[in-house]
Amino acid sequence: MKEKNDRLFTDKELTEFRKGYMELALEALDKGDIEEAKKWCRREAATHCLIHDLMTQTITCLENIIYKGLGEEACMEAIKEATGFGASQDLIQLRKDTKKWVLWCVDMWRQHAADPGIVVTEDDEKITISLKCGSGGRMVDLGMYEGPDGYNKFVTPTHDTWGETGLPLYCAHCHWVHEMIPIRDGGRGSQFWMHASPFPKKPGDRCVHHIYKDPADIPPVYYERLGLKKESP
């Protein structure tokens, strides 16, 4: 048995608990301690998705309860209500500068536990982002929608499911957050990202997003599958 005066942590360690990984890594770099900085970077990488994964599964569990108790339509309405608060004015303005918008999207995906990372390509018209999603996609990869105890999927194709069937519950917020809210808040000419591959249908599937350099070049099909009509310039 430990004596009462036996310490588990030093004063230095207790002080470090108040600081984030970035602050600790930068302090180590300022001191020239490269290995210490690497330690904190690796610690951040190993732990940054713990709360993220817990909240993702908690949200899906609640959606599943609504789905089973009240049905598909009520579940989709709950998802819309929960994610329909809209974007800040800063975010709306950011979408008007395509380069800044792409950088923001890349930063977001870097923090979204995407594995094994994102692939970004560019052609004359658009930027394409391909990734293994760290939330909805990860749940598909782990088989959490399979078997008798698996989470449900939307079976009725509607504009809320990109006109497809089999949309995983958690992935249902993406069409609203990534497409409908930007259009609603910024108008039909607003920049938003299109789900070229709307959602992962089987383990290993990647999500593919298009961001057009000029919103006027967004093909009409991306509006039509949302139940909208592309406005003429």
Q: Count the strands?
A: 6
Helix content: 40-55%
User: Biggest β-sheet: count, sense, barrel?
Assistant: 4 strands, antiparallel
Strand fraction equals 5-15%
Rg, please? 21 Å
Major sheet: arrangement of strands: 1-2-6-5
Structural class: alpha+beta
N-end to C-end Cα span: 77 Å
Number of helical segments with 4 or more residues: 10
Q: Secondary-structure element sequence? A: HHHHHHHEEHEEHEEH
Principal-axis shape: globular
Q: Roughly what is the average pLDDT, rounded to an integer? A: 88
Query: Which stretches of 5+ consecutive residues score pLDDT under 50?
Result: none
Describe this structure in words.
The protein has about 230 residues and is of the alpha+beta class. About 45% of the residues lie in helices and about 10% in strands. It has helices at about 10-15, 20-30, 35-45, 50-70, 70-85, 90-95, 100-110, 135-140, 175-185, 220-225; strands at about 120, 125-130, 155, 165-170, 195, 205-210. The strands form 2 sheets. Strands 1-2-6-5 form a 4-stranded antiparallel sheet, with helices on one face. Strand 1 and strand 2 form a beta hairpin. The longest helix has 21 residues, at about 50-70. The radius of gyration is 21 Å and the shape is globular. The mean pLDDT is about 90.
